[in-house]
Fold this sequence. Notes:
Helix 3 links the parallel strand 6 (about 120-125) and strand 7 (about 150). A seven-stranded mixed β-sheet has the order 5-4-16-15-14-6-7, with helices on both faces. It has a six-stranded mixed β-barrel with strand order 21-25-22-24-23-26. The protein is an alpha/beta fold. It has four domains: about 1-75, Single Sheet (N-terminal domain of TfIIb), CATH 2.20.25.90; about 80-150 and about 350-465 and about 490-530, 3-Layer(aba) Sandwich (Rossmann fold); about 155-345, Dimethylsulfoxide Reductase, domain 2; about 600-690 and about 700-725, Barwin-like endoglucanases. Helix content is about 30%, strand content about 15%. Bound molecules: ligand MGD (2 copies), iron/sulfur cluster and molybdenum atom.
Amino acid sequence: xxxxxxxxxxxxxxxxxxxxxxxxxxxxxxxxxxxxxxxxxxxxxxxxxxxxxxxxxxxxxxxxxxxxxxxxxxxxxxxxxxxxxxxxxxxxxxxxxxxxxxxxxxxxxxxxxxxxxxxxxxxxxxxxxxxxxxxxxxxxxxxxxxxxxxxxxxxxxxxxxxxxxxxxxxxxxxxxxxxxxxxxxxxxxxxxxxxxxxxxxxxxxxxxxxxxxxxxxxxxxxxxxxxxxxxxxxxxxxxxxxxxxxxxxxxxxxxxxxxxxxxxxxxxxxxxxxxxxxxxxxxxxxxxxxxxxxxxxxxxxxxxxxxxxxxxxxxxxxxxxxxxxxxxxxxxxxxxxxxxxxxxxxxxxxxxxxxxxxxxxxxxxxxxxxxxxxxxxxxxxxxxxxxxxxxxxxxxxxxxxxxxxxxxxxxxxxxxxxxxxxxxxxxxxxxxxxxxxxxxxxxxxxxxxxxxxxxxxxxxxxxxxxxxxxxxxxxxxxxxxxxxxxxxxxxxxxxxxxxxxxxxxxxxxxxxxxxxxxxxxxxxxxxxxxxxxxxxxxxxxxxxxxxxxxxxxxxxxxxxxxxxxxxxxxxxxxxxxxxxxxxxxxxxxxxxxxxxxxxxxxxxxxxxxxxxxxxxxxxxxxxxxxxxxxxxxxxxxxxxxxxxxxxxxxxxxxxxxxxxxxxxxxxxxxxxxxxxxxxxxxxxxxxxxxxxxxxxxxxxxxxxxxxxxxxxxxxxxxxxxxxxxx
Length: 726
Ligand SMILES: Nc1nc2c(c(=O)[nH]1)N[C@H]1C(S)=C(S)[C@@H](COP(=O)(O)OP(=O)(O)OC[C@H]3O[C@@H](n4cnc5c(=O)[nH]c(N)nc54)[C@H](O)[C@@H]3O)O[C@H]1N2
Ligand SMILES: Nc1nc2c(c(=O)[nH]1)N[C@H]1C(S)=C(S)[C@@H](COP(=O)(O)OP(=O)(O)OC[C@H]3O[C@@H](n4cnc5c(=O)[nH]c(N)nc54)[C@H](O)[C@@H]3O)O[C@H]1N2
Ligand code: SF4
Ligand SMILES: [Mo]
């Protein structure tokens, strides 16, 4: 029998008088959906649809992709460069030459006065790979500061660090197709249905064909947890203990893959000695998952013919983010689940091009997964660019989360922000505000003129958005996708690539190095520099990528297509070609709830919004579903405190306070609240953001707060309206 939609007329895209469809790739999340934007006879973008034959999304899009074409002319897009007039402390519209001359002159002035490293450059996971590569060339090869990083430190740094420690290199080894082969899926701190709706749809499609157990580890009853066969509501920040306990049971019961361990790994002795301490009874007391369930899940995972783990921010954003990733990798190594269909350890990435920056931006070293610490890598890149290798710093510089404290204390005097909005996305916003106010010179290069950081900027450079320029993004499964230009840049905004090239021209060393003007020429350089390496792009061209709707690296020259998996041969990137099993003791260092601050503060995302809402906040069809900052709170705890549904509450942490609308729900346990982080002046006023020792990623998802009813409900309501004022 057919239910619901099947008995009705299918939903149709309203007739928008589309004259032409243009192929491109979605610019929000890392799923990497292929989109066609419909243009009317005047060339105006009027609608969007998924590309039917694209392997990633097979014609589907989520709500953000469906309305993405509305971004091109959305409110407060930057139209012209702005320069702050010191005398009146207000912006003046200027031409590009004046803005760029001033920016280059200020960078030189600051460097001459305070040294090469006194300017910081912080970028993103949201510009095109050709732009990342060019920014890397400009930073490493011309400006020469070692204070260079991206917002991926808030996002993917733990995954990168964990992959490097386990396998010797970054690079997610699996792919979406693994869902179709796996016999057990375990997801850690990922809310796939909301944050990667199309990857989730791929999982659901696989489950429709063939049932296999889905286990979701999340302290909150997310949409993903609701569909799981087993939900493990782990105590915040203790996944490492759970993972050590799973390994303990597997080894104790002899369920490990001995051959795989002996042939492809090192460090087993130390690893097994460490996990011996994490028996399920002891572990249950720390991670909150009972001993029987730990044993049951360990057996399910180890006995499955192929088992896979995925994870996102619940793991990465933790004081043991990097350790959590290593522990997930180890769970897969001891069960022989790496590089085989359905057996993998797959970090679900975040931003549309978080992978592109990891591969090519040179933030953590040099392009193409090369390191500043390796003589050969320095020489290869220096020769290719035509500079002296001695110009490169000796080792990678500080992470974004260490650069901000250095600005706070005055070691760094100037900052160039590209496509990131730390005034909403960094922990402990009061401190970030003070830091930005401290700067002698701040340039903000963003697609929106109203991004909160422009309040503190001396120069604002308006950037073209996704779809107004051309180049590639790499998605979660290492698939390089093509972004075609769909419309002309808004107003007088310019592609980031053009801006970087123009800045390069204003430096003597920049005039000596070749900075190609077109993305296709830049792509050629990346192809050459990737040849024969793990991330081989040499078999790709822009046209071939479009034709195949994305190609997964490695794709060597002459290869028909890309490679779905890494490490299928069990050969890893450590010098001995083996993967490392690393013993990881758990250190309980979070700010935990106590008598004074009795609630865990958890934060994350909702499906309709992307990050700091510079984009989704402007799109009525998206914003209307989630227009207001709110907090999920357990009804029992609310009752004890005299807080009602849809009233305002005041949250206080050791950093500050925020007033939020309360939504009562059993999605959160009695000692936790959850706030989407999308809204300015909300959750990150409260967060602490302790740093992971390896990745320097902040533990956004764990800190302690107390909660009181807001005394003046009317004032709180007015403030809340102001917060959603787009
Ligand atoms: N709609 C939408 N989609 C997005 C984005 C967006 O802003 N909006 N952003 C993109 C980006 S950049 C990213 S990084 C991804 C993020 O994607 P996700 O990581 O899936 O999203 P979050 O909601 O940040 O966090 C996921 C879950 O981590 C859980 N968590 C908190 N603490 C712990 C813990 O200690 N252990 C475990 N196991 N879980 C914990 C939270 O309860 C939450 O449900 O989404 C991408 N996709
Ligand atoms: N409490 C809490 N805080 C968090 C998180 C959390 O889970 N909880 N998650 C963290 C994570 S995972 C992430 S990734 C960060 C994200 O934090 P941010 O990167 O700071 O947030 P976005 O809003 O994505 O900022 C991107 C900016 O780039 C602009 N932009 C878009 N496209 C282009 C382009 O092509 N060129 C230029 N120049 N600009 C462009 C947008 O207008 C926007 O202002 O937030 C982090 N903060
Ligand atoms: S799932 Fe991600 S890539 Fe796909 S349409 Fe939605 S936001 Fe875009
Ligand atoms: Mo992210």
